[in-house]
Amino acid sequence: MFDFEFHNPVRIVFGRGREKEIGRLLAADGIGRVLLVTGMGSVGRSGLYDRVTASLVASGVDFTDYSGVAANPVLSHVVTGIARARKDKVEAVLAVGGGSVIDEAKTIAAGIFHDGEVWDFFIGRDEIKKALPVYTILTLAATGSEMNRNAVITNTDTRQKYSISSDHLYPRLSILNPELTFTVPPDHSVYGAVDAIAHVIEAYFTKEPGTRLQDRLVESIILTVMESVETVLETPEDYDARATFMWAATLALNGLTPAGVGPYAFPNHMIEHALSAIYNIPHGAGLAVVIPAWMKWHAPRNREQHERFARKIFGRRTAEEGITALEDWLKKIGAPVRLKEVGIPASSIPEIAANAAGLAKVWGIEEPYCARVIEGILINAV
Ligand code: NZQ
Ligand code: ZN
């Protein structure tokens, strides 16, 4: 066990119908006006928007609507949101949606206090010193953003999909009602499952060996996500499966599983962000393509842990059998596993690798992840 600090301050309010409490919860915190951040319309179609605004009105909380957050949120929309939040002097940001909406809300919350370009935070030119409180009502189980300190935004001018991390970005409170995910379409349930699995395997494979509690936490999350997403795909309104899936995805990236494992890296995410930056594909779809390709490259470098994965998750013996079993399972649930399945030609590999190598530098993992190595990994996905 390595030394660590673990402090996750997010208050989770979990259960059926709990979004109706949002007005009361905000008012209890002394919040009188929020920026209400939403996506491209799913919250309107489901009736959630009406329930949330009715709750705000009933508790006397004013709101400024800010809709139109794109899946893979973009910097230009963040910048307009900051201006709107400043103009209306909001006291908090309320995100109602999936990871994209929450990430944009977090970035607006930090950007409002920054005089320069908010992109400075993403390229390490400035540091987040303060943010408005962020509240979330989650509608899609995937990213863990509802209980973590990260946000990911795409700069479409530079084609960079980069992230920020800061203790100031932890939401103050997140409402998780599994019923709100009943309407998530099958493809996005699949992408969410892949993302949650990706979040736990990054450290599992790249850390030093020998932290068995953390290994077992990861294996438990993977097995739980696999089982619950299969049920969700068969029965989208199975409350227990949606609830289990939702909480597992939250725990997958809230700091719990890597606590005590020492140094680790996020190489699959580094490569995937380049795919999404250039081709604007869903994050979980890109990960499903990258992960088996990366595992084929990485298995000889940490054979023992890849064999453990094969054994514990799929009851197989060798690392290679484990990777094949994972690919088969991804195919079974309808995830893409090759670049061409997400519309990316093999001829783009050098461009993607160069883009990913740029992010590798920002994340301090340019060794071993130079463009040439990343190209070699991506060739496994052709
Ligand atoms: O925009 P709306 O209309 O809301 O539609 C969304 C969107 O089209 C829809 N959706 C969401 N909830 C729904 C629903 N449709 C029906 N019923 C519901 N209840 O689903 C689509 C995808 O939503 P999005 O928020 O983009 O998905 P997700 O939660 O997977 O978020 C992806 C973003 O998060 C980033 C990704 O890179 C990507 O930009 N990530 C954020 C992380 C973090 N903050 O910690 C970590 C991750 O590794 C990831 O990078
Ligand atoms: Zn992810």
The H-and-E topology, N to C, reads as: EHEHHEHEHHEEEEHHHHHHHHH
Helix amount: 40-55%
The number of domains: 2
CATH architecture of the largest domain: Up-down Bundle
Question: How are strands sequenced across the largest beta sheet?
Answer: 1-8-5-4-2-3
Largest pleated sheet:
6 strands, parallel
Low-confidence stretches: none
Spatial extent as radius of gyration: 20 Å
Topology:
Layout: E1 11-14, H1 22-28, E2 33-37, H2 42-45, H3 48-58, E3 62-66, H4 75-87, E4 92-97, H5 99-111, H6 119-122, E5 134-138, E6 150-155, E7 160-165, E8 173-176, H7 186-206, H8 212-234, H9 239-252, H10 267-279, H11 283-298, H12 303-314, H13 319-333, H14 349-362, H15 371-379
Parallel strand pairs: 1-8, 2-3, 2-4, 4-5, 5-8
Antiparallel strand pairs: 6-7
5,6-dihydroxy-NADP binds next to helix 2, helix 5, strand 6 and helix 7.
Structural overview:
- The radius of gyration is 20 Å and the shape is globular.
- A six-stranded parallel β-sheet has the order 1-8-5-4-2-3, sandwiched between helices. The protein has a two-stranded antiparallel sheet with strand order 6-7.
- With 382 residues, it is of the alpha/beta class.
- Strand 6 and strand 7 form a beta hairpin.
- Helix 1 (22-28) runs parallel beside helix 3 and helix 7 (186-206) packs parallel to helix 11 (283-298).
- It has helices at residues 22-28, 42-45, 48-58, 75-87, 99-111, 119-122, 186-206, 212-234, 239-252, 267-279, 283-298, 303-314, 319-333, 349-362, 371-379, and strands at 11-14, 33-37, 62-66, 92-97, 134-138, 150-155, 160-165, 173-176.
- The chain has two domains: 11-180, Rossmann fold (3-Layer(aba) Sandwich); 186-379, Dehydroquinate synthase-like, alpha domain, CATH 1.20.1090.
- Residues 39-43, 71-72, 97-101, 103, 139-140, 142-145, 148, 150-152, 180-181, 183-184, 188, 191-192, 195, 253, 269, 283 line the site of 5,6-dihydroxy-NADP.
